[in-house]
Amino acid sequence: MSYLVQEGAKIHPPGEQFRQLLARPEILRLPGAQNGLAALQAKAAGFSAVYLSGAAMSASMGLPDLGVLNKDDICFFIRQIYRASGLPILVDGDTGFGGILNVIDMVRSFEEAGAAAVQIEDQSLPKKCGHLNDKNLVSPEEMAAKVAAAARARTHLQIVARTDAAASEGIDGAIARARLYVEAGADAIFPEALTTRDMFEKFAASIDVPLLANMTEFGKTPYMPATDFEAMGYKMVIWPVSSLRVANKAQEALYNHLAENGETHSLLGTMQTRAELYDLIGYSDHEALDATLQKTIMTEAMGHAARKDGTKG
Questions:
Q1: pTM assigned to the model
Q2: Per residue in 151-176, is it b (16+ CB within 10 Å) or e — as a string?
Q3: Which residue has the higher pLDDT, 86 or 288?
Q4: Which of 168, 190, 71, 66 minimizes the C-alpha distance to 127?
Q5: CB 52 within 8 Å of CB 91
Q6: Where do the structural domains in the chain lie, given as residue ranges?
Q7: Which residues are paired to 52 by β-bridges?
Q8: How high is the pLDDT of residue 306?
């Protein structure tokens, strides 16, 4: 249900809700949601939180995931997803958009927009997708300073520190970085682009805070279900771009069919109906709210006018 028709405020801020989800015994499954409508679909499917991927945001704007987006671009996505769904959102904050002061500004801006958690990575700019080669990293100390700044600036936002070090420094180097980031104040660790089950298990045995696994498609990590990650001790798993990949493939098929045949009626069976869309976005709820409030105001206004001229209200 849209924020326009929700009544009252949540008792706990998004970051606290996210922390409570991590305290549950089962792994937290976080599908990627690249816009408000996708988040509503994830909520309808029963998910309790979503992941906002930098790659998905960039791609939806027709841009590569190379650190091109700025903080305000991402706040736009956070606001629409949180307002539409009310779900806690783990947001991809890339490298924090600069140095320590930029990280502080990012944390405060993301909290104001409605984020529940932010992921900060230890790459240098221009950053790359974690499953590509030749990534460059900042020093462990520079990244730790960013984590400490984020932890100091937040009021409720959960801080997830991502390390891309496994590819260049090995699993032991990635673990050493993760320990430093935990000491700096990270609430959780995201070891990116691990390539074997043994690496995931070794990481889990070495780090005490909640861990996040990335089950992206077409990447370096072997395909595993959420239950496998849970058995290894991971508390979160993301599918960051899956919804965008599926939607893009379907949209591509539509455009090709339309260009070739000049009609869409033969594809009706593949489409979400008008009724299904309206139900998802709460069309009737908004319409009813508008009519109710308008009727209430009109009635009160008419009664006030009647009392002024001496007639009964």
A1: 0.89
A2: bebbebbbbbbbbbbbbebebebbbb
A3: 86
A4: 66
A5: yes
A6: 14-249
A7: 91
A8: 47
What is the tens place of the pLDDT at every residue in 192-214? Answer: 989 999 999 999 999 999 999 99
The pair phi, psi for residue 241, each rounded to 5°, is -120, 5
Residue that is written with structure tokens 């499954």 in the block = 29
Angle, helix 166-184 to helix 197-206, in steps of 10 degrees: 20
Report pLDDT for 313. 46
Show the CA angle centred on residue 153, arms to residues 71 and 190, nearest 5°.
Answer: 70
Q: Work out the pLDDT band at 75, boundaries 50, 70, 90.
A: very high
Q: Which superfamily does CATH assign the domain made up of 14-249 to?
A: Phosphoenolpyruvate-binding domains (3.20.20.60)
CB of 71 closer than 8 Å to CB of 91: no
| Whether the Cβ atoms of residue 97 and residue 70 lie closer than 8 Å to each other | yes
Q: 123 pairs with which residues across the strands?
A: 137
In what order do the strands lie in the sheet containing 212-214? Answer: 28-31, 236-239, 212-214
Label residues 262-277 b or e (16+ Cβ within 10 Å = b): eeeeeeeeeeeeeeee
Does residue 26 register a pLDDT over 60? Answer: yes
Question: What distance in Å separates the CA atoms of residue 234 and residue 229, rounded to the nearest whole number?
Answer: 5
- Identify any residues that bridge with 30 across adjacent strands, giving them in sequence order: 238
- Residue 181 has phi, psi (to 5 degrees) of -70, -35
Residue 10 confidence (pLDDT): 61
Q: Report d(CA 12, CA 158) in Å as an integer.
A: 13
For 273-291, the pLDDT digits (tens) are 999 999 999 988 878 877 7
The answer to whether the beta carbons of residues 228 and 20 sit under 8 Å apart is no
Please list, in sequence order, all residues whose beta carbon lies within 8 angstroms of the beta carbon of residue 288, skipping any fewer than 6 positions away.
Answer: none
Q: Which tokens hold the place of 14?
A: 């998004």
Q: In what order do the strands lie in the sheet with 89-92?
A: 50-52, 89-92, 117-121, 158-163, 188-191
- 95: tokens are 């490298």
